[in-house]
Amino acid sequence: MKTVTEFYNEQIAEIAWFSKCGEETDLTLHYDFSFVNNWKEAEKSLNSRWDNFKLEIRNGLTVSLHKEYLEAYRQWNSITIEAKKLLKNGALNDISLFAKNNNLNESVYESVEWDLLTAMMEYAYSPYIEPGFYTELLKVYQSGHIPCGWKGKWPEGQLLVF
Questions:
Q1: In terms of residue numbers, what domain contains 120?
Q2: What's the total number of domains in the chain?
Q3: What is the 3-state secondary structure (H, E, C) of 121-157?
Q4: Is 138 part of any domain?
Q5: For residue range 48-102, what is the model confidence (pLDDT) as tens digits?
Q6: Would 28 be classed as within a structural domain?
Q7: Beta strands 158-161; 147-151: pairing state
Q8: Which domain of life is it from (predicted)?
Q9: What does the pLDDT look like over 118-132, one tens digit per residue?
Q10: Are 146 and 112 in contact (CB under 8 A)?
């Protein structure tokens, strides 16, 4: 298995951030999705409801690890520190600059940071638990878009994408 650094370099470092926002492109995801029309709508969806939704999903990962793979789970903090360092020294600089240059709300940066970190954690623990939701969100970023909310009841609803 690749290291978190290799995963970052291959899957995150070269993303063309937000390059397709505003365009309805073909995406292949495990979830239904619909597009929002502009940054204003995207920012409106990047709210505490979306944050709580994502937190619940990540909590599912940590609970499963704690119950079933306690020894591996004990590495969570050290892996998180490594992943955060990679993000802060790389992609998050580009995202911060983009957000500032486009007068975007801080919620854009915070949401992307959370999503990327958790995608990296899903990868780190993929030998134990199959990657899921955050790996799908990473696909959205890789396509030049941003995931910005969930419409409907989980898991039958739709991922909102800009």
A1: 49-143
A2: 1
A3: HHHHCCCCCCCCHHHHHHHHHHCCCCEEEEECCCCCC
A4: yes
A5: 999 999 999 999 999 999 999 999 999 999 999 999 999 999 999 999 999 999 9
A6: no
A7: antiparallel
A8: Bacteria
A9: 999 999 999 999 999
A10: yes
Residue 34: φ, ψ to 5°: -140, 155
The answer as to whether 7 is a domain residue is no
Which amino acid does the sequence have at 35? F
Let me know if residue 29 belongs to a domain. no
Q: How does 100-136 read in b/e, with b if 16+ C-beta sit within 10 Å?
A: eeeebbebbbebbbbbbbbbbbbbbbeeeeebebbbb
Take residue 111 and report the two structure tokens written for it.
């949401």
64: how many CB neighbours lie within 10 A of its CB? 14
| Identity at 54, one-letter amino acid code | K
Name beta bridge partners: 76: none
Q: pTM higher than 0.85 for the full model?
A: yes
Tokens at residue 42, please? 């995207």
